[in-house]
Design brief:
The complex is a heterodimer of chains A (316) and B (316). By secondary structure, chain A is mostly helical. Chain A has helices at residues 3-23, 30-62, 74-89, 91-96, 99-122, 129-153, 156-166, 175-191, 193-196, 199-202, 206-211, 216-238, 242-255, 261-286, 293-315. Chain B has a single domain (3-315), classed as ABC transporter involved in vitamin B12 uptake, BtuC. Helix content of chain B is 71%, strand content 0%. Chain B has helices spanning 3-18, 35-70, 82-96, 102-126, 133-156, 160-166, 185-194, 196-202, 206-211, 216-237, 247-256, 260-285, 293-311. Chain B is globular. Classes of the chains: A mainly alpha (316), B mainly alpha (316). Chain B: GO terms for molecular function: transmembrane transporter activity.
């Protein structure tokens, strides 16, 4: 199948799933159901796009297909923030805190952290992306060891509150926050759009890219800023979606017969939307909210990926 | 980082470790110990020292091997899917045998880790990997699938906090009768030393290795087996220790290059000295209480490794 047909098929599948999601078990109360469900769908579209774009870009920049932007420590920072609030001020503070304040606090801290990390490392002479990753891992480990220590000391009831924050969830979206995130993600994508066209060349490696006239250092920095912003917004909106990026990007690399970023990114976005909407449907209808979205995504997605790999080895 | 200094540090710290603790025991008592002091020594201090050394050496050595085999600096030994199988085992042990002794629970979890590793290898062997990245990818995906089962069950029975705190690194519960499982890893680490040259060659890629007359698959399987088993044993008796498997091998290879034969001793010693130092500090800071090793390693390690990384002005 040609790639464009694959993309169309994926798009159709995504639309069909969205249609099912919007209308299933409707029973007439459309005025009530539709706005609530469309909020979820919007959040899913937003997160799917942000995670997919940031992961593919990050993997191309680092030339490493098992990495996700999680590596620079933003997710651990988010979990630490939530844990620290509960640990220091009690779970009542976290649950009663206004959603937009929480969102602003989380995005602010994550962007501040990423900014400091980048600034510190880019100001040094002759630095390599490898260093950024190592420093990011170290900071991430620092945050997560403090948060797991705090979590051990938490009252089990308080822990349940933190536990909810540790998994991505599309329930209980706040409208203001949702609109704000959509605006933010669109702004980021628009502002950095002109840098995305260099990705195909950047994927050839630094030497080739520089030889072909791409300002490699500058574009890398700009794209890394874009990645951090996208991850910060989507994490603050729905929580850490760590594994999703890895899963969908690698499924896309297998499904698409080209490495051109236009196709791969479009494929990744569509696959993640299919995965998220489908997963959310299963969580809501099959498990009636008794488990989290990431459980379904990791289980089904992981098995599908292994299946793709096995099939590929058989045919070649 | 001369190897001599590391040896001196190792001996000094080991000696100190034996005489730090709540029960009064000073080096001066060494030649006229009371029965009580002997007991303290045999039941608590020596097992603790041994487990610290094994954990420090084991984790960093298998980290290095894993990175070599997967040809990827960002793969940690927990990537081999073992950790997730072991956590599932812990969960099952808590669920099914709530009253059993700790050693029995560890044994149950270990059986799960073994099974998981065997399954992982079977999947891997059915896949033709032209690309070494697939080792890590299959590990991550496999881990994701098993992890999702664990999370699903843990959420269902509200055991997430218990499983997490079981796996949080902690030496304070190491006593005679609880840590002996760790000895399983000693022959494996010795085997890793013997095979160091072969792992180095395997790290150059399948074609190259076969050309040099190496049974590539066999060596990779052996390496992954060692990695998985050692990781499982340490995880189950001591808990997870951040940094050891990822950052220590990276720091050493910055200084010593990628020939395992020359970098293994440094990696092993640095790992042991690092864990020892963190453990001693953790026992002194809030004496007579202690800070768990997971937190100490996370916090002190971040500082030390950031310093080590940033001190090097440039890196090609």
């Amino acid at each position: 199948m040609r790639d464009s047909w694959k993309l169309i098929a994926l798009g159709a599948l995504a639309l069909a799933l969205i249609a099912v999601f919007m209308t299933i078990d409707g029973s007439g109360n459309w005025d009530y159901i539709l706005p609530r469900r469309s909020k979820k769908i919007l959040a899913i579209l937003l997160t799917g796009t942000a995670i997919s774009v940031s992961t593919v870009v990050f993997q191309t920049l680092t030339n490493n297909k098992i990495l996700t932007p999680t590596l620079i420590g933003l997710d651990s920072m988010y979990v630490l923030l939530q844990t620290a609030i509960v640990f220091l001020f009690g779970s009542a503070t976290l649950t009663s805190m206004a959603k937009n304040v929480q969102f602003a606090l989380a995005v602010g801290l994550m962007v501040l952290f990423a900014g400091m990390l980048y600034k510190f490392l880019f100001n040094r002479e002759g630095n390599h992306l490898y260093f950024l990753l190592l420093v990011g891992i170290i900071c991430g480990t620092f945050f997560s060891s403090i948060s797991s220590f705090m979590q051990m000391l938490l009252d089990p009831n308080d822990f349940l509150i933190v536990q909810d924050k540790m998994f991505a969830s599309f329930n209980n979206m706040n409208t203001d926050v949702l609109i704000l995130s959509i605006v933010l993600v669109l702004l980021v994508l628009l502002y950095f759009y002109r840098d995305f066209k260099y990705l195909d060349v950047m994927a050839l490696g630094k030497e080739h890219a520089v030889n072909l006239g791409v300002p490699h250092g500058r574009i890398t920095k700009r794209l890394l800023v874009a990645v951090a912003l996208l991850v910060a917004v989507s994490t603050a909106l729905v929580g850490p979606v760590t594994f999703l990026g890895l899963l969908v990007s690698n499924v896309a690399y297998r499904l698409m017969s080209t490495f051109r970023h236009k196709v791969v990114i479009a494929g990744t976005v569509l696959i993640s939307i299919v995965a998220l909407v489908g997963g959310q449907l299963i969580v809501e209808r099959v498990f009636t909210f008794s488990t989290t979205l990431s459980v379904i995504l990791n289980f089904v997605g992981g098995i599908y990926f292994l299946y793709l790999l096995l099939k590929e080895s058989k045919s070649s | 980082m001369k190897i001599g200094y590391l040896w001196v540090a190792l001996i000094v710290f080991s000696f100190t470790s034996l005489f730090v603790g709540v029960s009064n025991l000073s080096p001066l008592d060494l030649f006229r110990m009371t029965d009580y002091q002997w007991e303290i020594m045999w039941i608590s201090r020596i097992p603790r020292l041994i487990s610290i050394l094994i954990a420090g050496v084991g984790m960093s050595v298998i980290g290095l091997i894993m990175q070599q085999l997967a040809r990827n600096k960002f793969v940690s030994p927990t990537t081999a899917g073992t950790t997730d199988s072991a956590s599932l085992g812990v969960l099952v042990a808590i669920l099914v045998f709530p009253a059993a002794s700790p050693l029995f629970k560890i044994a149950v979890a270990f059986v799960f880790a073994l099974g998981g590793t065997m399954l992982f290898m079977r999947i891997l062997n059915r896949i033709q990997f032209r690309d070494p990245i697939l080792i890590a990818l299959v590990g991550l995906m496999f881990g994701g699938i098993v992890g999702s089962i664990t999370t699903f069950l843990a959420l269902k029975y509200n055991l997430l906090q218990s499983v997490n705190s079981w796996l949080f690194g902690d030496f304070s519960s190491i006593l005679k009768g609880k840590y002996e499982m760790l000895y399983v890893s000693l022959p494996l680490i010795a085997l890793a030393y013997l095979y160091a040259n072969r792992f180095t060659i395997a790290g150059m890629g399948e074609e190259f290795a076969v050309n040099l007359g190496l049974k590539y698959r066999q060596v990779v399987n052996l390496g992954l087996g060692i990695v998985a088993l050692v990781a499982a044993v340490i995880l189950l008796t001591v808990g997870s220790l951040p940094f050891l498997g990822l950052i220590i091998p990276n720091i050493v290879s910055l200084y010593k290059g990628d020939n395992l034969r020359s970098s293994l001793p440094h990696t092993a010693l640095l790992g042991a000295v690092f864990v020892l130092a963190c453990d001693i500090l953790g026992r002194i800071i809030i004496y007579p209480y202690e800070i768990s090793i997971g937190l100490m390693v996370g916090v002190i390690g971040s500082g030390i490794f950031l310093y080590l990384l940033l001190r090097r002005k440039s890196y090609a």
